[in-house]
Amino acid sequence: MKTKSKMNGHTILLLITIGLFIVLYAGGCIAYSSRGFSHLQTFLNILITNSGLICVTCGLTVVMLTAGIDISVGALIAMDCMILAVGMRSGHNAIVMILIVLVIGIAFGMFQGFLVGYLEIQPFIVTMAGMFFCRGMTAVICTEQVSITEKTSKLFYDWANAKINIPFGGYLNNKGKYMVPYIRPSVVIALLLLLFTYLMLKYTKLGRAFYAIGGNAVSAAMMGLNVKKVKMVAYMLSSIFCSIGAICYALNTMAGSVSQATGLEMDAISSAVIGGTLLTGGVGNVIGSFFGVLINGTISSIVKTNGKLASSWPNILTAALLFVFIVIQSVFAMMRNRKK
Amino acid sequence: MEGNVVLTARGISMTFPGVKALSNVDFTLRKGEIHALMGENGAGKSTLIKCLTGINDFESGEIHVDGISGPVKNHSTKDAQEVGISTVYQEVNLCPNLSVAENLFIGREPMTKLHTIDRRSYNKRSQKIMDELGIAVDVTQNLENYSLAIQQMVAIARAVDMECKVLILDEPTSSLDDEEVEKLFTLMRALRDKGVGIIFVTHFLEQVYAVCDRITVLRDGQLVGEYPIAELPRVKLVAAMMGKNLDDLAEIQKESIENVEQKELEISAKGLSHTGTIKPFDIDIHKGEVVGIAGLLGSGRSELARAIYGADKANTGTLKVDGKEVKINQPIDAMNLGMGMLPDDRKAEGIIADLSVRENIILALQAKRGMFKQLSRAKQEEIADRYIDLVRIKTPNPETMVKQLSGGNQQKVILARWLATNPDFLILDEPTRGIDIGTKSEIQKLIVELASQGKSILFISSEISEMLRTCNRMAIMRDGEKVGELDHDLTQENVMKAIAGGEKEA
């Protein structure tokens, strides 16, 4: 009756994800060591490029744990970036604009969460409407690309260009100059958010409630959990995390445009799935999702370093990976059912 | 309120559209007793329980709970839990993806100073609770790793730890095997000795006599009476539930025993198996014969049937139907060979709740004919009417949605569905589970009747007595293997011995 080892299928899935990342990354290092892939900076660049995506994926993981989905995140990022860019262009302080964006995130998430939690509308439909709304609103604010420059906001510009040096892992470049590896502030934001989400999911009542609801919403309600409220909070967190991600995104791109972050929701969902989060809810954690993001980032990075492969290859590789992972997941599920 | 009474309900009435579900029912539960709530389907057991737990709002009457002044009116299960009434249902209402400890404590976790969950403390407390109740589990493991029986006990442990005074167990044993049921009983007795009042709802008469101290019987929404267990022997209980004496069952037995002369083979399986679920088995079923499959839950009873029917494609062996060797890859092949199967999980595999009785009945027949040869409406209605009449389905009309029928009638609808395809060989997997005694005996009679018309039947049931009444022969299953057959001296004792086997069960 007792299981033989402590290891269950979900832990194995997480280990597979981490192992895959290591294999991919090591492969990249070996194949492209002459082009500098093995430098620490390559890894840090993956973090920098994907800092926004890490934030979004944290939020999405929470929503997916409750067996929901949020496809409005890409469009919300575009809207947030546009608001940041336009606001700063018209002379508003960067901090004020950031606060505004966060408040928008909370309000937007609360509304979507209310529709899903209290009115029990399908999350796909609700967030699809949210997606169209945000994308449309971005164009209403401004149809052109708006840049954030040193002139529009010195403060934001400084943040974007700030380097946080890492005291190890440097190298000498061709000219014999010592290159100090660095990260950007956006990476710090993303990693803090990751840590926060991890602790929240593991050690708070709210965090466990997300799992309970994803496991069996009826039972969760029977056990006295406020299912409606918890669901609403999940969508609120998703939108807030997404808005924080938008700030990271703006720090990286220094612009707002209608077509920004198109399809980002799909990157986030695929990262979470590769990281072992089940779309059916109740299973997964942000560490897995983080490695999911890293795997996607590594694939893009390898394709970029290669230089000859068409830029559509990362998509095909991600598709292949997703396919492999969902097959592994269902094989595990089948094995478990058979055991019973 | 008397000193040792924990719960009284007085004059509870409740009306559903068109039906008086409860009229003026009284119920009293004392401290430290296991009190059976008995009645046929539709007698009002569930309704009464839902009134106690706050799911239904009753119209008149009062509920009093020990330690609370004034009448109690619950509006949700949470309200009920707060006054000390907890319920454990047949379907376990826990989260399989969380650990046992989390399931015990979710919503009321102990916290550290930092306002985070104190995992260590609740793991320790959970282990203590489970140890005290004598349930051997590792509380840090996910609930899904444990059997249904353990899951049910975790649900009970949760209720008990929430300091419930009244524990309602609604059909908790329906999906458990005998050994698991015994464990559950041990737990129930331990709780009774601690002073918890337990209301036990079940269809199994033996179980009532095994654990209960007192019985309250309902019939048609009315209280028949409350009896100490010693004053109400089985026959009287059945009589009280049905409002009549039940001699019909005795009749059936005679019929089946006359029927043993050998006829030609309908089904002959040699070395059939399905990897992982059932080891190779041989079985012969003659025309007009009812063969029972006896064994514990999970011993491979259903799996044997599924391998014949092609629901799990057989990996090895040969199957002859009517003397001809056949290959069955999927159920439709079996259907075309004149087989029908009533699956044990009627909710998941059988009934389509949102379709009407008529549509459910003609479903298999239509599938057999193929999608493009639709039966005319008139023909459908004719078939539906014939089988509603034949199997005695209680439904307002053939267009009523199946979900509005009672469990027993739903079961009859599936039976009708297969009879409509006019099968030569019918597999019935637990056709009487969870339905009342009256309907049970009707279905048993029907089985014998079908056999006398020359149909062959494979009958799977957890109730040995029921198979004794209907079967000519019994196959005995143990641990995924067919271990033997009994064709004479069919008595409860012999069958039990065969199932238990020589050695001790692992």
Return the structural class of chain A. Answer: mainly alpha
Radius of gyration computed on alpha carbons of chain B? 24 Å
* Global morphology of chain B: globular
* CATH structural class of the largest domain in chain B: Alpha Beta
Distance between the termini of chain A: 10 Å
Feature tags:
heterodimer, A: 340 residues, mainly alpha, two-stranded antiparallel ribbon, 14 helices, B: 506 residues, alpha/beta, Rossmann fold, 3 domains, six-stranded mixed sheet, 18 helices, 24% strand, globular
Overview of the structural elements:
The complex is a heterodimer of chains A (340) and B (506). Chain A is mainly alpha-helical. Chain A has a domain at 37-261 and 278-283. Chain A has helices at 9-31, 40-49, 51-65, 73-89, 94-117, 123-141, 154-161, 185-203, 205-215, 217-222, 227-253, 264-274, 286-306, 313-339; strands at 146-147, 164-165, 171-172, 178-179, 182-183, 255-256. In chain A, the strands form 3 sheets. Chain A has a two-stranded antiparallel ribbon with strand order 1-6. In chain A, β3 and β4 (178-179) form a beta hairpin. The model of chain A is unreliable at 1-6 (pLDDT under 50). Chain B is of the alpha/beta class and 506 residues long. Chain B has 3 domains: 5-242, Rossmann fold; 247-338 and 423-506, Rossmann fold, CATH 3.40.50; 351-422, no CATH class. Helices cover 37% and strands 24% of the residues of chain B. Chain B has 18 helices and 19 strands. In chain B, α14 crosses α15 (407-420). Residues 248-252 of chain B have low confidence and may be disordered. Chains A and B meet through α9 and α10 of A and α2 of B.
Task: List the SSEs and their pairings.
The complex is a heterodimer of chains A (340) and B (506).
Chain A: H1 9-31, H2 40-49, H3 51-65, H4 73-89, H5 94-117, H6 123-141, E1 146-147, H7 154-161, E2 164-165, E3 171-172, E4 178-179, E5 182-183, H8 185-203, H9 205-215, H10 217-222, H11 227-253, E6 255-256, H12 264-274, H13 286-306, H14 313-339
Antiparallel strand pairs in A: 1-6, 2-5, 3-4
Chain B: E1 5-16, E2 19-30, E3 34-38, H1 45-53, E4 60-65, H2 77-82, E5 85-88, H3 100-105, H4 119-132, H5 148-161, E6 166-170, H6 178-193, E7 197-201, H7 205-211, E8 214-219, E9 222-228, H8 234-242, H9 248-258, E10 265-274, E11 278-286, E12 290-294, H10 301-309, E13 316-321, E14 324-326, H11 331-336, E15 339-342, H12 346-350, H13 357-369, H14 377-390, H15 407-420, E16 425-429, H16 437-452, E17 456-460, H17 464-470, E18 473-478, E19 481-486, H18 492-500
Parallel strand pairs in B: 3-7, 3-8, 5-6, 6-7, 12-17, 12-18, 15-16, 16-17
Antiparallel strand pairs in B: 1-2, 1-4, 8-9, 10-11, 10-13, 13-14, 18-19
Helix pairs in contact in B: 5-6, 9-16, 13-14, 13-15, 14-15
